[in-house]
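Incident review: delayed structure delivery

Summary: a single-chain prediction request sat in the queue longer than the usual turnaround. Root cause was a stuck worker, restarted by the on-call engineer. No data loss occurred. The affected request and its eventual output are reproduced below so the record is complete for anyone auditing the incident later.

Affected input:
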Amino acid sequence: MAFTPDSPVLPAAETIGETLLEFPDNFLLIDLCGEYDRNLTDLENKLGLQIVRRGNQLVLLGEEATRQAAAEVLEALYARLEQGRDVEPADIDRELRMGGSEADTGTRAGDQMELLKTDRVEIKTRKKLVEPRTEAQKAYVKSLFDKELAFGIGPAGTGKTYLAVAVGVNMFIQGHVDRIILSRPAVEAGEKLGFLPGTQDEKVDPYMQPLYDALNDFLPAKQVAKLREEKKIEIAPLAFMRGRTLSRAFVVLDEAQNATSMQMKMFLTRLGEGSRMVITGDRSQVDLPRGVMSGLRDAERLLKDIPKISFNYFTSKDVVRHPLVAAIIEAYDADDPEKC
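Output delivered after worker restart:
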């Protein structure tokens, strides 16, 4: 069971118990503990217990619930190392959130069907292996492979776009699609930027930068440049989608809350044979002029009962950025009388 108290503190001395974990491979134990035992320190801070290292053993000191949670995380991460995989701080966060419930089958996700058959959901890209860090993210990733049209709706920092781009890269390198198309409405976030100088690409690049960042996380920079030159990867404003039919493509519309109803209809009707389409957005961050209906809200209202379309929702509990981001989102939501 996941255990992540907001303000972890060590329990009173009379409630402290002890759990002993033994790890046969000292080299793997070193990787498990991390540089300067930073992984152990991270776990101590998040769960509110003490971890003492003795040779090839770890002694957990704390209340029973925290000791059990820490033991599950450490054993899952050690099993990961035994399979020849790395352990990063994000893996600790994921194991805490997921509660160690995913049995690691040791099978890397090679293609779409293999990924969906395993308990652990993994997205293999050229540069890294991406794993969902919450149950909502896991369900979202599965729907991206399973459905031709999927929506990801929720606050910033929940991995909606990042995971969608990762799945797009996975499907592209596996040959399930011939190209990746990433799009956003070119709407200013409450600021008037004026007429930007430069070429068409230079004008729209500032709006598209988050999509470039995600792509560069999954593919080498030279490959991204080459694929863009060959038009196998396209990054363009939403307005440029009009009149096109997107066949055998993985298409992502990011920041969809800033699309108008007409733009959303136009975009959704671009779906062609052999394509996958993902729409992501945050209903609390609409930058459209007052009185203009968000296309994301409209699409949700009109399409929610179509079985072949998946709607996936995230909350502040799914935020995987800095912990303060989740607290900030919760504070704003609590103060919003028209909270979605």
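Verification: Confidence is low (pLDDT under 50) at residues 1-7, 100-118, 189-193.
Action items: add queue-age alerting; document worker restart procedure.
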